[in-house]
Amino acid sequence: MTGFDFDAVIVGAGAVGLACGRALSKRGLTVLVLEKEPHIGQGVSSRNSEVIHGGLYYPTGSLKARFCVEGRRALYAYLDSRKIDHRKCGKLVVATQADEVGLIERIYEQATVNRVEGLEHLSGEQARAMEPALNAHAAILSPESGIFASHDYMLSLQGEIEDAGGSVVVSTPFERAEPLPGGGFRITAGGEGGASLTTRLLVTAPGLGSQAVAARIEGFPADRIPAGHFGKGVYFRLTGKAPFDRLIYPPPIAGALGTHYRKDLGGQAVFGPDLEYVATEDYSVDPARAEGFATYIRRFWPGLPDGALTPDYAGIRPKLHGPGEPQPDFQLDGADVHGLPGLMALFGIESPGLTSSLAIGEAVADRLLA
After folding, report:
1. Are residues 236 and 262 in the same domain?
2. Residues 142, 118: contact at Cβ < 8 Å?
3. Per-residue pLDDT tens for 349-368?
């Protein structure tokens, strides 16, 4: 078949889906992005810390290590060129007691292998000179870490797709796809009885819906769809003045980076996320969790006043590992995995997916057009 309605269809208008759409648009393709929600970026992309990660933690040679560093460099340039609000505030990874020094030293070594720029070892005294309220036995400074206005970023990506002649269509859920003889796909979207369209290339990047979307693509082997898990994290906001200017991270917890501190672009202090595995998309925040948060936060900020934490919001991460299992890499699965030419299926795009989004988009476009 030669007369396709679109060169490429992307399922999911979060940061990664939009970045894939932008990358394909830049290469001259006509692009359609489908989003089931009424607005772009309503899932994983809107319920996170809005942190630009340096790339410290990720295993040597992994997609996370590569895309985080490449994506972070590209992201700062993108934000600068388009005047999107951001702040390269830097991050302190803190050993709050002597037995954590080895943990942060291993992070430093991994970050060095990952080619993260500007890292510094700090004594506790040096860290407190930067952040006087901090409890630190030692610390690592990552000056390339920061925060940004993620929704403004996504709106910019959408604008680039549309300026190139593409479309981003909301309130239009993906229903199913079937491979066409000779290549390409027929897609049904917009609910049962919805519109049918054809595309040469298909990218699935719907975050929490990745497994369900893959299962609705005819011919996608069920044993090639990885098991998914919902990793919920809640955030609490501080009532009062923000105590630190930089991001503050204790050593990571099992399966995640753990509860950390940021001063958001509005100047307010936010703590989170924690990690709890859940069965459904539940975005409630239990105020009773504040007590556990306070205990954890006082490890690095002993001056946290009693009763100063208020429930803020929750996010859910599309994890490929369950409790106690090792944390796997991003999956960008092409025809070599599932046997369907022209399809790129993304799974497990959690942190550092937002930071990595531009690099992921470029990699997806390169692989599809190779």
Report:
1. yes
2. yes
3. 999 999 999 999 999 999 99
- Reported as a single tens digit per residue, the pLDDT across 31-81 is 999 999 999 999 999 999 999 999 999 999 999 999 999 999 999 999 999
Structural domain harbouring 35: 6-48+151-227+328-369
Would residue 297 count as lying in a domain? yes
Backbone angles phi, psi at 220, to 5 degrees: -80, 115
Whether residue 304 sits in one domain with residue 160: no
Go through the chain and tell me how many residues it has: 370
40 and 23 assigned to the same domain: yes
Asked if 273 contacts 157 with a C-beta cutoff of 8 angstroms, the reply is no
Q: How many domains does the chain have?
A: 2
Calpha distance 341→185 (Å, rounded): 10
In a domain, 84, yes or no: no
Crossing angle for the helix pair 63-81 and 150-163, nearest 10 degrees?
A: 80
pTM: 0.97
In angstroms, the Cα distances linking 365 to 97, 188, 343 are: 46, 23, 11
Tally of CB atoms within 10 A around 329: 16
101 and 166 in one domain? Answer: no
Amino acid identity of residue 351, one-letter, is S
